[in-house]
Amino acid sequence: MHRNTYTVTIKNKLHVLWRGLRLIQQKIPSLLPATVAGALLKSFSPFITIYLTARIIDELFGAKSVPRLTLLVSLAVSLNLIVFLLQKGMERIRDTGNYRLLYYGLIEMDQLILNTDYENVEKPDFHLKKQKIEEAFQVKYSGIWRLPDLADLLISNLGTVIFSIGLAFPLFTTFSSGNRSFFNSPWLAVLFLGFILLSATYSVVANTRFSKAVFRKMGDVPSVNRAFSFYGKMMQDYHRGKDIRIYQQQKLIDKAYKDFQRKSLQTFGIEMAKMQARFLGTNAAISSLISGFVYLFVGMKALVGLISIGSVVQYVGAISQFTSGFSELIKSSTDSWQNLDYVKLYFDFLDTPNPKYKGTLPVEKRSDNDYEIEFKNVSFRYPGSELYALKNLSLKMKIGQHLAVVGRNGSGKTTFIKLLCRLYDPQEGEILLNGINIKKYDYQEYLNLFSVVFQDFQLFAFSAGQNVAADIAYDRKRAIDCLNEAGVGSRIRKMPRGLDTPLYKIDADGVDISGGEAQKIAIARALYKNAPFIVLDEPTAALDPVAEFEIYSKFQEIVGNKTAIYISHRLSSCRFCDNILVFDKGEMIQSGSHDELIQDEKGQYYALWQAQAQYYKENNEQAFSS
Ligand code: ADP
């Protein structure tokens, strides 16, 4: 059983490795070949010097032939130069490749966030996964980005080990038949190999344990770093600057920031540094022991006349390359193995499933806007929530109808809109467009039916015109018309670059806009889309009374023959709608026209209406009495 899971883990990891390498090869084809070539050159280059120096020394102590010496020296110089230049060339290709990989990897994750089902975006887990990947990269430089570097280390160290064994091989295999000294015994070679194997086993075990501990610790890092980046962002965000100054919150923030810094250092930095020091210390001790042993062994062999002085240089050089290459090889193999866990996190994130069923039915384009929506016994709970946000909702939206939805906070009004736009699918019941379940339609085409101004609408730091058109190239006249209609045209015209002025101060020439102006631009965006359904969720919350009045008085004109859904706390603005739905705790408890609903003195609509009427009355009386 245990063995089985182990095999599965190995298989999974190899699959992740294969997928990672294939992805890099597809996206940046020059990166891996340059890495492999660079690694081979790197491992090969020291041996040119070691081998040729040995030959030069032998020549100096032996025949002393000048032409031969000249040949050897020029060979050493030119080979070194060629290898060096080739290596630098590969390094350059690798550096640009790695840079492209960095951005490719990050952009790929952002693309997923932009395109995945909305349901995923609202899950905190989803964002935590991404954060863990980014933090592993920042703190440990681990993940898909590290694959080329680890490939480089693995190949170059493996190369070093192979080349050094090749160069040191004769030391263990040539024995002089007449010499019976201990240094001529094959047993010494066996002992030597045994020693290396033992230290290798130790290194593998220690290194694996170390990297596993780091991977576990990484689990703690996101929470600490999240707090870090939260405070970091808070300091950058100039919108918060006002509150920070008025309430003199600098000290409070500074302390919290430092506390997190300390915690982060304790949970990750100090402990890790201790572990690393222990691990590296033992590794270094073992390496020096092996080196000492080698010097002794080679020196003794030379002393008893078994090998030449040149060969001493060759063997000592080769074996010291071997010991460092070998311990690095073990370190890079275990690091690579552990890094695959981080690569797996990356692919797991990219593989986040889309829960939504994707239909293919085209939505018929109709100039008469003859689209009818029906909710049939629709119930919905947010993922992970026990409570129904909407319960057993049934209603029909007729073409051109103006529908208002009212109700207290949290009664399910926005959820109703989210289901209508299929940002979520209901667990029970169904929503029909012209008699067909909306799941069956092509989602993009279905979305084309809706213009929505959400309560928490968002504009972007693009130009004003691009914000309205939600596109790079757009119809400027139409954008201006929509902005005029939403009552913000003159403000945009006064901006330094008119429609081309970037919103918000991210750009140097960006312009900050007020909440009310932003809301009007959001309304203009909804108008520009010109969809058959227009949904306004508290569309006037940020508007001043004059602007609000303007929007309301133009409401019929703005909405035209579209089907409109209108959510507002301001009941006086809903009274002109054909039908008013009253929501309470996820249920529709009343529906009808204003005149009908106001008759029911026990109903919630009456109570809500009275509460506001009362407020206005009191205000009026106060205004008159003062
Ligand atoms: P309203 O728009 O009427 O103020 P909502 O539709 O936003 O109400 O919310 C209805 C209920 O669903 C509330 O109890 C709210 O807390 C809950 N809710 C809203 N959004 C989410 C969400 N993403 N996850 C879990 N619960 C949510």
From TrEMBL:
SMART domains: AAA. It is a multi-pass membrane protein. It comes from the Bacteria. Its main location: membrane. The keyword Cell membrane does not apply. It is found in: Cell membrane. Pfam families: ABC_tran. Residues 373-610 form the ABC transporter domain. The keyword Ribosomal protein does not apply. This is ABC transporter ATP-binding protein. It comes from Sporolactobacillus shoreae.
